[in-house]
Amino acid sequence: MEIRASMTDLRKHFSEVTSRVKFGGDRVVVERFGEPLIALVSLDDLARIYALEKAEIDNSLGWRSGGGKILNQFRKMCGTGRLKF
C-alpha cells in the first residue's frame, strides 16, 4: 500500500513508519510543502528496482541473461555504494 506523509509526520512517527515499510511492505511517499520529495521502500522492493535497472541496461546493450560483466566490474570500481556523510 502507498502512504503519503509530510516530512513533519515522518519525523514524529519515524519508528512506526519504518516498521510499516519493513514488516508491512508499505511504500511511503514523503512530501515537503505538498510536493513528493522521497520514497521509502523495503529492501525487497529496492532489490526489485535494482534488478529492473540491470535488466534495462542489459537489454539496451544487447546482453543476454547471464551477461552484465561490465556492469559488475563498474560496481566493484565504485565501491560498496554506501553513502558517506
Low-confidence stretches are none
Strand order of the largest sheet: 1-2-3
Q: Whole-number radius of gyration?
A: 17 Å
Separation, N- and C-terminal Cα atoms:
31 Å
- Please provide the count of β strands: 3
For the record, the count of structural domains works out to 2
Question: What's the total helix number?
Answer: 4
Overall body shape: elongated
* % residues in beta strands: 15-25%
Biggest sheet layout: 3 strands, mixed
Structural account:
By secondary structure, the chain is an alpha+beta fold. It has helices spanning 7-12, 14-24, 43-60, 69-78, and strands at residues 2-6, 27-32, 35-40. 53% of the residues lie in helices and 20% in strands. Strand 2 and strand 3 form a beta hairpin.
Q: In a nutshell, what does this entry contain?
A:
The protein is of the alpha+beta class and 85 residues long. It contains four helices and three strands. The mean pLDDT is 79.
List the helices and strands and how they pair.
Layout: E1 2-6, H1 7-12, H2 14-24, E2 27-32, E3 35-40, H3 43-60, H4 69-78
Parallel strand pairs: 1-2
Antiparallel strand pairs: 2-3
